[in-house]
Amino acid sequence: MSADYSDAVVFQDQPITQLLIKVATRCNIDCSYCYWFRDATVYDKPKLMSSRVLDQLLQRIEQHVIKYSLVDFPIVLHGGEPLLWGVENFHRFAKACEGISSRTGCEIPIAVTTNGVLIDDEWLDCFEMRNISVAISLDGPAHVHDLHRHTFQGTGTHAAVERAARMLLSRDVGVMALAVCNPAYPPQEYVDFFAGCGISSYDIMIPDATVDEKPASIASFYNGLFDLWLAANRNAPTINVRIISDMITALLGNNSPTEGVGHKPVELCTVMTDGTVEAHDVLRIAGDGFTQTKFNIFDHSIDDVRNEPRWKAARDASIDLCETCRQCKFMNACGGGYLPHRFSKKNGYDNPSVYCGDLYAMFENMQSVLERQLYVSKPGGERINLVEAHAGPD
Questions:
Q1: For residue 19, which of 48, 45, 54 has the smallest C-alpha distance?
Q2: For residue 110, which of 79, 141, 73 has the smallest C-alpha distance?
Q3: pTM for the structure as a whole
Q4: In the chain, which ranges are continuous DSSP H helix?
Q5: How far apart are CA 200 and CA 205, in angstroms?
Q6: What is the pLDDT of residues 58-104, one digit of tens each?
Q7: Which of 264, 336, 267 is nearest to 305 (CA)?
Q8: What is the largest CA-CA distance in the chain?
Q9: 3 pLDDT band (50/70/90 cuts)?
Q10: Is residue 34 over pLDDT 90?
Q11: Of 237, 242, 306, nearest to 277 (Cα)?
Q12: How far apart are the C-alpha atoms of 272 and 50, rounded to whole Å?
């Protein structure tokens, strides 16, 4: 389940296959750990995407899916807080994408990541009618969530967000909760909270930090979370914790669906409210203006961003790992960790993740457990565990 580094690893070029669209650059709450506002240049962008930019973006999307004969083209509406864009704009965008799909045969699944505070029945009707899936930012129980996710007046937002999550679950809407790990609290508190809400699909994300920072250790938290995930799913699938399923997928030699796990290029394209095109938005934690480009959807097609120097630099950095990572037995499964977590002012992305030791401990623990749990069936029906299978005959 681990693999040695090979200089022969080659990742083929491919067209942009998903979009992150910033429909709003401001937010209606004040989260202390938000990466977005670490870069003050976001205040130079329009607060909301205009009709002019939206019309041009829709043209570019249709041109892109036709040129590359795409069978699907997932889109995430993001912010800031994307619901500030307004429910009518969501209807307009989704209806236009439905038209593109009918003309091209390309499926365009739409998702939105929101803090949930603005969700009401009108928003629920929109999500349900337009088949928009929702990722809602909810950091577990109130005493954890309200430490960081509060209003500009300093009051907690947990009650409003939990209420929104329960409203979403009452409708025919795909729902996932996104929490940020606080390793000061046991994973059991998160698992119990989400179970109590009826949320079976969620992620508990690693806190964003660069190599120049000193975040708290996370290995113990995630090893405990893995144990809870395993116990909950032992007899039948009960909960899906994205980071756990991604790590298992990578350990078993497959590509994980998200960019933070596994050795593969990060090729996300971000469209800003003014139509400028950038690389992954979370790279803003590197500092002011770090993701800015001169590319935009008026002068360039979507796939032109692949030739933009900063986009290319981020893409190349995602697969060109530092020496420490290249020598690691979990290189393929880990992929060096999340790209922003490798950044330092001194070396750029040429570093192990700031969580390198934690990630190694997490993969080591997970591999050890999986080797005891997974079996290989022999032709006669006998089952042997993976350790015995790797050892071979005496």
A1: 54
A2: 73
A3: 0.90
A4: 51-67, 87-104, 121-130, 142-148, 158-169, 187-197, 219-232, 242-251, 309-319, 323-326, 331-334, 356-373, 386-391
A5: 16
A6: 999 999 999 999 999 999 999 999 999 999 999 999 999 999 999 99
A7: 267
A8: 71
A9: very low
A10: no
A11: 306
A12: 11
Dig out the tokens for 231 from the structure. 């116990």
Burial (CB count <10 Å: 0-12, 13-18, 19+), residue 349: buried
Nearest to 352 by CA among 382, 371, 330, 374: 330
Average pLDDT value for the chain: 91
Query: Using one digit for the tens of pLDDT, what is the confidence trace for 174-223?
Result: 999 999 999 999 999 999 999 999 999 999 999 999 999 999 999 999 99
pLDDT tens digit string along 271-306? 999 999 987 767 776 666 666 778 999 999 999 998
Residues 34, 40, 45, 47: is their CA dihedral positive or negative? positive
> What percent of the chain has a predicted confidence (pLDDT) above 70?
90
Distance of CA 194 to the CA centre of its chain: 19
Token pair listed for 65: 């899916």
The amino acid occupying position 70 is L
Token code pair at residue 6: 């090979």
Contact present, 199 and 169 (Cβ < 8 Å)? yes
The first and second tokens of residue 333, run together, are: 């499964």
Q: Confirm if 275 and 302 have CB atoms less than 8 A apart.
A: no
Phi and psi at residue 156, to the nearest 5°:
-70, 155
Residue 198: C-alpha distances to residues 162, 177, 202, 235, 352 (Å) = 11, 11, 11, 19, 37
CA distance 231 to 224: 11
pLDDT the model gives residue 86: 98
> H or E stretch including 368?
helix 356-373
- Residue 354 and residue 183: Cα distance in Å, rounded? 15
Rounded (10°) CA dihedral 73, 74, 79, 81? 130
